[in-house]
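Hi all, a correction to my earlier message: I attached the wrong file for GTP cyclohydrolase 1. Here's the right sequence:
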Amino acid sequence: MTEIDRTSIDQAGLSGNGGAGLARRPFDQKRAEDAVRELLLACGEDPDREGLRDTPARVARAYRELFAGLYTDPDSVLAKTFDESHEELVLVTDIPMFSFCEHHLLPFHGVAHVGYIPNEHGRVTGLSKLARLVDLYAKRPQVQERLTSQVADALVRRLEPRGVIVVVEAEHLCMGMRGVRKPGSRTTTSAVRGLLRSSASSRAEAIELIRGRLR
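and the right structure:
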């Protein structure tokens, strides 16, 4: 049995379909174009002038790509696993990440560090799948705290590991372009589960490896 309590994850509504956030309907290209056109009109612009004539269609296509994570169950990314008899920490650092703050629909970007300790069977997944998982959750209207926890809890569901750690470092343009206007400030969030939460030595090892990449 894993040392992670999955009951709390299920109670939070994060089991089954890969967690909260999947779209309830397909992307509506026409509706998105109309919305962009209305926004331009609301700002006092002329959406029919030469420079903006094709902008609604371009923006709609861009958001379809940027929010692609709304249309794929993240659990499918981790569907293929392997029992490799490896029971030590697996850690991928500096995974580039781009997402959108759901409060202002402005970007935040940075890196994610994702690690886990396999269960007694040594169950692992492909290293690229960890990066794909981050990318999929990032391609949604998000808040950094939730994104961090969703990645960790997806690993708990699919790999049943003994421990998980996810650390995300990001700069939020909603803090740099507007409001407080503090460009360059970074926010760090973490989600730690199982042995990497309960064992100080295991947690310290993972954190040291994450910090050590900067040396």
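Sorry for the mix-up. The longest strand covers residues 90-101.
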